[in-house]
UniProtKB/TrEMBL annotation:
Gene3D superfamilies in the cross-refs: Metalloproteases ('zincins'), catalytic domain
Zinc among keywords: yes
Keyword field: Cytoplasm, Endonuclease, Hydrolase, Metal-binding, Nuclease, Ribosome biogenesis, rRNA processing, Zinc
Compartment(s) of residence: Cytoplasm
UniProt: Zn(2+) binding residues: H120, H124, H130
Protein name: Endoribonuclease YbeY
Family designation: Belongs to the endoribonuclease YbeY family.
């Protein structure tokens, strides 16, 4: 998967490398994300920008930590052959102030929290969800935990084993 990364309003850091590592780990646990034809944009931005996006596209008038905007249905993603033109998987946007506040509340680094949120967002783009049922939520969380473990990051849901 190719990432198009834009960073605005985040502190200096290795955000591009972090996003690449997160995408690699996500692709290891969700093989549909490993297709080289896929392109995803990742925007590291402010709460104000995510608030605007959330209001305009999700009818939710507040910022949130991460937004995902899929452009492929899961069925189409699974049927995508390795040969052919690039395909846009979707967009992810992370809100700095919310991510930073949540990291402090959780007692973890901003880098680890941002990595988790990128993995989470990519799994949403791949068609996974945690809203419709507890079973789907548990499946998605297990994938997140597995991807983060590949990067040496602890279980963000309570250090339980999968």
């Amino acid at each position: 998967m190719q990432l198009d990364i834009d960073i605005e309003g985040w502190p200096a850091g290795e955000w591009e490398a972090l996003a690449e590592r997160a995408a690699g780990a996500a692709a290891e646990v969700e093989p549909a994300l490993a297709n080289a034809r896929l392109h995803t944009s990742v925007l590291f931005t402010s709460d104000a920008e995510v608030h605007t996006l959330n209001r305009e596209w999700r009818d939710r008038d507040k910022p949130t930590n991460v937004l995902s905007f899929p452009m492929l249905e899961r069925r189409d993603l699974l049927e995508l052959t390795p040969d052919g033109p690039p395909e846009m998987l979707g967009d992810i946007a992370l809100a700095h102030e919310t991510c930073a506040r949540e990291a402090v509340e959780k007692g973890i680094s901003l880098e680890h929290h941002a990595t988790h949120l990128i993995v989470h967002g990519l799994l949403h783009l791949a068609g996974h969800d945690h809203v419709d049922s507890d079973e789907l939520a548990e499946k998605m969380e297990a994938l997140e935990i597995a991807a983060l473990a590949k990067l040496g990051i602890a279980d963000p849901y309570g250090d339980r084993e999968i």
